[in-house]
Amino acid sequence: MASHESLLPLRLITIIGSLNADITTYTSRIPSGGETLHARSVKTGAGGKGGNQAAACAKLSRTRNDVNNGSADIRMIGAVGNDQHGQLLLNNLRASGVDISGITIQTEIETGVAIILVEESTGENRILLNGGANYSLSPSLFVTIPNPKPSLLILQLEIPLQTTLQILKAAREAGIEILLNPAPAIELPAEAYANLRHLILNETEASILSGYSVEQIKNDSLLPIAARVFHSRGVHNVVITLGSQGVFYSQDAGLSGFVKAKKVEVVDTTAAGDTFVGAYALEAVKVDFDIDVAVRKANAAAAKTVGKRGAQVAIPWADEVGPI
Ligand code: ADP
Question: Which CATH class is domain 4-17+49-107+134-320?
Answer without folding.
Answer: alpha beta
